[in-house]
Specification:
The chain is mostly helical. A two-stranded antiparallel ribbon has the order 1-2. It is extended, with a radius of gyration of 23 Å. It starts with 14 loop residues before the first strand and ends in an 18-residue tail after the last helix.
């Protein structure tokens, strides 16, 4: 027989929240309810959100470990989103690793338009040496 969520290890993700409606009626939800409610479909985003919402309480490392893991998951989510954006304009069969130089140039131009690199910080000037 299948256990209910509050009868197994998934219960650590259950939280009582209050409705946004006037009556403020309480309801129990878990991380997965939240992900579905917000239609989070990217696996890397799902992983990051779970680590952020449950940092330090998952039983798999401490809070800092989960925050570092979430950071890595967000970085991966960004990579996946870039790939999705490229696929939209280049077609799903396009692959940055195997395409010719023209395709790679188009990819680079597109990615610069989507996520421009940050301006480099100006170098700190060294104080001029005093002449004796």
């Amino acid at each position: 027989m299948t256990k209910k969520i509050d009868e197994h290890e998934g219960s650590k993700y259950l939280r009582k929240i209050h409705s946004a409606k006037r009556d403020k009626s309480p309801i129990q939800v878990d991380v997965y309810n939240v992900l579905e409610a917000f239609k989070v479909t990217c696996p890397a985003r799902q992983h990051a959100i779970k680590k952020l919402l449950c940092a330090g309480i998952r039983g798999k490392g401490n809070e800092l470990d989960d925050l570092i893991g979430a950071e890595a998951a967000v970085a991966r989510a960004i990579e996946l989103e870039k790939d999705r954006q490229v696929d939209l304009i280049m077609g799903e069969t396009w692959n940055v690793e195997t395409s010719d130089a023209l395709d790679k140039h188009k990819w680079a131009v597109y990615m610069e338009a989507v996520i421009p690199e940050k301006e480099p910080k100006p170098a700190k000037e060294k104080p001029a040496k005093e002449k004796k």
